[in-house]
Structure formats: structure tokens, C-alpha cells
Write a structure and sequence with these properties.
- The protein has 336 residues and is an all-alpha fold.
- It has 14 helices and four strands.
- Helix 4 packs antiparallel against helix 5 and helix 5 runs antiparallel to helix 11.
Length: 336
């Protein structure tokens, strides 16, 4: 009996999706370490943390939207525009705190625009946010004339480039703190539970007295503000705002979130899962660079990884729905 209980415990651990993803992550680390001795050097670890910050912070806002059954494909463009806005404000000698707050306010306005199209005009979030993102890219090109905007604020540079123990960048620590905060919100607060209910079944959410439009409006605004923060920190690290920065970074964040178990169909996932997905994707892509794989092949590999993540998510969701259906049938039989 004791042996049976032990086997059940082991089975639960091995069957846990986080355990599986951590095992894959460790496997990726081992493979690339064996292939290249430059992989786990302090300099490259710092590079990986810098990439993980960008992907991870965007994954925070996008994971919340995915859990609620929505998507925002304007996120990367919003991050790019956020970096440009903060650079332009700093050039006008505006102190960095007001400059950052103004940038976040612009993000909040864009989030409200996305929410308007989805909740009021009933546009699919996939299409409307892609259209908004394209418009944001056009605005960025107009106000910069396709030129970079240098940043001349030394303190602001420090936010993007300072490190802890010469390896861990400050932006990565900010990302980790945000993931802890949002993880708590998802698991321990009424608003977090309502996000899962809305993502699982909007009709059921309405019957339970929840306003799905209110929830998704908050999440669209939240996501755009986080994107602006990412853009500002990337601009601080690069010491410039650029109309080519952060484009496509939202797809990496979505890939990482879905890899970690955040469902593209809504209703499931969490920040711990998203964090594991971020680190797995970051280590994988960095490994491809270290072994000298060309940029085009890296794009192909990342796309293949996204397809694999969506396929896994599809079968995971099918299995979950099958389990719910069989459970409902069993309960019905018992009542009979």
C-alpha cells in the first residue's frame, strides 16, 4: 500500500505540466552546454536574462489576456512606441519619472481603444488589435521619420543597464517581481478568479453576475501599460528609442506563455507556467545563436516551436474538456 501511494505521488509529479517543462528546460541547457562551452558563461547568461526580461514582462500582460480568452497583437508595436515616446520626452529635458508616467498614460489610452473595438464594436480581438498595432507602427514612423531618438538621461540609462552581481539585469528583477504580483492576483484574488471564469465561459460568467467586458477592458489597459514599460526599459538599455525595436517580441511572449501552459483558448494557465515558458524559449533561442545558426533558421525554429506549443495546447484543451464532460456524466449517473 505504501509503495502504491509512493508510485501515485511520483506519477502526479511527472504528470505535472510544470515538471515536464522544467525537465525540457534543463535538457535544453545541457544540450547547448555540451555543444558550446560559451553557452553558460557569465556574459551569455546576462544576455539571456536581458532577453528573458523583454519576453517575460510582455508575457505578464499577454498571459492575463489569454487567460481571459483575448489576445493583443498590438503589444510589440506598443512597446516600440513606448520607447520612442519616453526618448522624445527625455530629449525635451522632462524628468524621467513624469516622462515614464506620460508614456504609461499613452499606453492606457491605446488599451482603451483596443477594448472599445472588442467590447463595444464586437470586433474579434485578433483582427482589431492587429489593425491598431499597424496604426501604431505608422505613427512611430511619422513622429521619428524612421530615425532613432537618442536618450541623454544617465539615471534612466541605469534602469535599463544596471546589474546585480554583474549578471542579473535590473529589468529582469522587475519582471520577476511583476510575475510574483500577478501570480498572486491570479491565484488569490476575486478579480483573478473572475479572469479564469470569463476565459472559460463568458456566458457562465454573465450568469454568475460577472461583467466580462469590464474585466477585459482592465486587462487591455493593463497589457498596453506593461508594453510601454517594456519599451521604456529597452530604450534605456539601448540608450535610444527606435522604430525597429520590439517588433515581433509579442509573438515570442505568446509562444512562451502557451509553451508554459497558458491556454490560447482561455481559462487556464498561470504566471509560474509562463515564467518557465519564457526561460525555456529564451535559452532555446540563445542556444541557436551560440551555435551559429543563421537568423532565418532561427525564425523558422521559433515558428516551429509556436506551432508545437499551439498543438500541445489544442490537445491539452481537448483532454480537459473530455475530462469535464466525463465528470459531468458520472455526477448525473450518481444522482439518478
Amino acid at each position: 500500500m505504501e509503495k502504491l501511494d509512493k508510485n501515485k505521488t511520483i506519477g502526479k509529479i511527472v504528470g505535472n505540466k510544470n515538471f515536464v517543462m522544467v525537465a525540457v528546460w534543463v535538457f535544453v541547457l545541457i544540450v547547448f552546454t555540451v555543444i558550446s562551452r560559451n553557452y553558460l558563461t557569465p556574459g551569455n547568461i546576462k544576455n539571456m536574462f536581458n532577453t528573458a526580461f523583454n519576453t517575460g514582462m510582455l508575457a505578464v500582460g499577454l498571459s492575463c489576456l489569454l487567460i481571459s480568452g483575448m489576445i493583443d497583437l498590438s503589444t510589440g508595436y506598443m512597446a516600440m512606441l513606448g520607447g520612442i515616446i519616453v526618448a522624445l520626452l527625455l530629449q525635451e529635458r522632462i524628468p524621467w519619472v513624469p516622462a515614464l508616467l506620460i508614456t504609461l498614460a499613452v499606453g492606457a489610452v491605446v488599451g482603451l481603444i483596443n477594448a472599445f473595438f472588442v467590447n463595444v464594436l464586437n470586433f474579434p480581438s485578433f483582427i482589431s488589435t492587429l489593425a491598431v498595432g499597424t496604426a501604431l507602427y505608422g505613427v512611430a514612423l511619422v513622429i521619428t521619420k524612421s530615425q532613432i531618438i537618442p536618450i541623454n538621461n544617465e539615471f534612466f540609462w541605469g534602469l535599463g543597464s544596471n546589474t546585480i552581481f554583474k549578471v542579473i539585469p535590473v529589468p529582469f528583477l522587475i519582471t520577476a517581481v511583476l510575475m510574483l504580483i500577478y501570480g498572486y492576483i491570479l491565484q488569490r484574488t476575486r478579480f483573478g478568479r473572475r479572469m479564469y471564469i470569463v476565459g472559460g465561459n463568458q456566458q457562465a460568467a454573465r450568469l454568475a453576475g460577472i461583467n466580462p467586458k469590464k474585466i477585459t477592458t482592465v486587462l487591455f489597459v493593463n497589457n498596453s501599460c506593461i508594453a510601454c514599460l517594456v519599451g521604456a526599459l529597452v530604450a534605456a538599455r539601448m540608450r535610444m528609442g527606435s522604430p525597429s525595436s520590439n517588433i515581433g517580441s509579442d509573438l515570442d511572449a505568446i509562444t512562451a506563455a502557451v509553451l508554459g501552459g497558458v491556454s490560447f483558448m482561455g481559462g487556464t494557465g498561470g504566471m509560474s507556467s509562463a515564467f518557465i515558458g519564457v526561460m525555456l524559449l529564451t535559452c532555446f533561442k540563445n542556444g541557436l545563436i551560440i551555435i551559429g545558426l543563421g537568423t532565418y533558421y532561427q525564425t523558422v525554429a521559433t515558428g516551429a516551436l509556436l506551432i508545437a506549443a499551439l498543438t500541445i495546447d489544442y490537445f491539452r484543451e481537448r483532454s480537459r474538456l473530455r475530462s469535464l464532460k466525463s465528470g459531468a456524466i458520472e455526477r448525473l449517473d450518481v444522482h439518478r
